[in-house]
User: Fold 26S Proteasome non-ATPase regulatory subunit 13 like protein from Aduncisulcus paluster.
Amino acid sequence: MEKLKEFAGKRYWHQYSVELNRLYNNLEFRREVNLLDFFLSSVTPYIKNIAPLNTAMYAFVAILEDIPLETHKSFIEDVFYSLRETKDENAALLGRCLVLHFLLVSSGAPLSVIGKHLFQLSKIISSSAPPLLNCALMYCITIFHKKCEHYDGFYRSLIEFWGYARKAGIALDDKLILSFAIDGAKSLMLSTSVWDISPFLEHPLAHSISASKDYAFLLHLLSVIKDGNVILFDEWMGNKDNLVKFESNIALHVLASKQREMREKTSIFGLLTLFLKREGMSRRASFDEIASLCGISRKDVFELVMKANESGVIDVEIEWSEARGEDIVCLKKTAARVLSRKEIGMLLKKYDRLDDHVSDAIRMLEGIVGV
Assistant:
């Protein structure tokens, strides 16, 4: 802080901006001060001497913290006013992101209207734009999907926001990281199109959950769903103490009413796991096997198979088996997915066995032809 006073007194504006950047990216400093007050005292008085993009960046970092709505409104108005005549297109676009973020958190406009503006911005801001700009855009889109309860969109935009924040060098507060991580885990449980759970379990966001004694159970439940372990899922949901964890937490309350959807996702993962454990032509299963695995009646197997196909995670067909005298479910293909380290290890072992078989065959042929 003393350096800022010194640089301002000597009108060393470049050094002043460099010191501001250092302070804004220092998490310990940000925890000790009120970022909004700091902005008003250290940025606003010298706003004409600070690059417009830097001004917008400081404002963006400030809104990552909790700001009272009334103060937030006047703050955004001041920032947007200072940027209104800037020739820096990136700064102007970042200013628009700040306004849209305020409208989202304040419910100042219908979500449909905000969505249209975000869509327009996403067409203007390309992936080659500065990471800071993409970070602000993805932050707004993430909040938008959360407001709309679009679980698929929320998870995808969250991962993009995280990546751009790292590229932009923006240090995120632990409280914000944990909040997003909880919402990310919840979205994975309820998403109908996102099936790559393994990458999240190894992501820094998941690490913040594992470090929290109040939310670590979410990772266990995600692992149960990913493994397709319907028995463990039913046992966990059948425990009243576990349900209380959902019902007593506003952020997780929706999960208490979505048990059927979560169980269905677990069953589809179970179906996938059943097939992947088998090789070649043996990747098929009877209705009775699937019913037993998923804890459902035989007549419900057809509906589960259809939903598995709709999910896109696997492509299966029902065929008549003359040998068995019954319908069987056959795996045609699985969707491309990101494998966990454990799954990669299992795959490597299969390739090692295949390599051994090929080597044996080559040696046998060499012996036959006398090479």
